[in-house]
Design brief:
Number of strands: 13
Bound molecules: NADP nicotinamide-adenine-dinucleotide phosphate
Largest sheet: 8 strands, parallel, barrel
Number of domains: 1
Oligomer: single chain
Strand content: 15-25%
Number of helices: 10
CATH architecture: Alpha-Beta Barrel
CATH class: Alpha Beta
Shape: globular
Helix content: 25-40%
Strand order of the largest sheet: 3-4-5-9-10-11-12-13
Structural class: alpha/beta
């Protein structure tokens, strides 16, 4: 798989990256560790070298599993992880509260204080079993800490060689502008899929203008755009998807009707719907990486195959016209 360079950092990344949120289990109804390790190992066979994780994904579990899976092969992967979401102690300002798989209520909050980020980096390095992180990202904006302070921590970590590139996630244009005044901002990781296109308005133009990469997260809209999610889909207990707006029954039915309209194009190309959706994502202006989650080797293999799906301008336009008619209740 040909690599792409992430923003001005020049960090080479695979255009399709593996997202390891589900591998953490939390909010996804658990995860099978053997499958997770095999999924990560198999990435290399299919040209995926960039893996995105975060401490919050399973409260350290996703990073730990990733560390195990890449042992002895660390230099063949790019590790993208995050910081700034805490779950120990309390800060009084909760980002959200939810049940983890063990049913324990946790108070989760954003915090991007300088010392805290530096300490978090050490914890992640330990869990990942490495001495550097390729891309370090602020997971969510922390309204209580100046962005400049968080970026100052990143500047120090860059100087120390503990991180190779600095990125953010879920940042607005205003927040990216502030961040990029302190460090060279490589990327912003944002929600982006056929049914979630808000960033086209301002984030994408800003990133194009400022040579900042975009990692499009949840491009399959958490599995919905594979076409497999039926109204009676058997979600595991603890899987948060049924509670999210895109999975509400009306939206699910409307989305599946839309997918049936583009299925003939997928079939014509010998592709699955998931592959067509990922290929469309990578054709959109400003999108550097499609950050696709997968739990198994089979999903990794299929998703990597999206790079072989060639879409013409007319085909992208045809999909967009059908998308324009899709009115979800969000
Ligand atoms: N920065 C942030 O705030 C943020 C937020 C969300 C996500 N992310 C990142 O983005 C990554 C991707 O997003 P995501 O995991 O939310 O959603 P996604 O990539 O849209 O969907 C991933 C899920 O879809 C299912 N799936 C994947 N490939 C499939 C295939 N070929 N056939 C059938 N089902 C398939 C799998 O779940 P099942 O098998 O259970 O259906 C998988 O876990 C995350 O892992 C994470 O790294 C970041």
């Amino acid at each position: 798989m040909e690599k792409r360079l992430l923003g001005k950092s020049g960090l080479p990344v695979s255009p399709i990256a593996l997202g390891a949120w589900a591998i953490g289990g939390w909010m996804w109804g658990g995860a099978d560790k053997k499958d997770s390790i095999r999924a990560i190992e198999s990435c290399l066979d299919h040209g995926i070298t960039s893996i995105d994780t975060a401490p919050i994904y399973g409260f350290g579990h996703s990073e730990q599993v990733l560390g195990e899976a890449i042992k002895g092969k660390r230099d063949r992967y790019e590790i993208l992880t995050k910081c700034g979401m805490r779950w120990e102690g309390t800060k009084g300002e909760y980002f959200f509260t939810t049940n983890d798989n063990g049913g324990i209520q946790r108070d989760i909050y954003t915090y991007s204080g300088r010392q805290s980020l530096i300490a978090e980096c050490e914890e992640s390095l330990k869990r990942l079993g490495t001495d550097y992180i390729d891309l370090y990202q602020i997971h969510w904006p922390d309204e209580t800490t100046p962005i400049e302070e968080a970026m100052e921590a990143f500047r120090i970590l860059l100087e120390q060689g503990k991180i190779r590139a600095a990125g953010v996630s879920n940042y607005s244009v205003e927040q990216m502008t502030k961040a990029s005044a302190v460090v060279e901002l490589s990327s912003n990781q944002e929600p982006y899929s056929m049914v979630r296109r808000e960033i086209e308005e301002d984030v994408v133009p800003w990133c194009l203008e400022n040579d900042c990469g975009i990692l499009a997260y949840s491009p399959l809209q958490r599995g919905l755009l594979t076409g497999k999610i039926t109204p009676d889909y058997p979600f595991a207990p603890g899987d948060s998807r049924p509670e999210t707006p895109h999975f509400k029954i009306n939206n699910l039915i409307l989305t599946n009707k839309f997918l049936e309209k583009i299925r003939p194009l997928a079939e014509e190309k010998g592709a699955t719907l998931a592959q067509l959706v990922i290929a469309w994502t990578l054709r959109q202006p400003g999108i550097t990486v499609a950050l696709v989650g997968a739990r198994t080797e089979e999903q990794v293999k299929q998703n990597a195959g999206a790079l072989e799906v060639d879409l013409s301008e007319e085909e992208v336009e045809m999909i967009n016209q059908k998308l324009d008619k899709l009115q979800l209740e969000l």
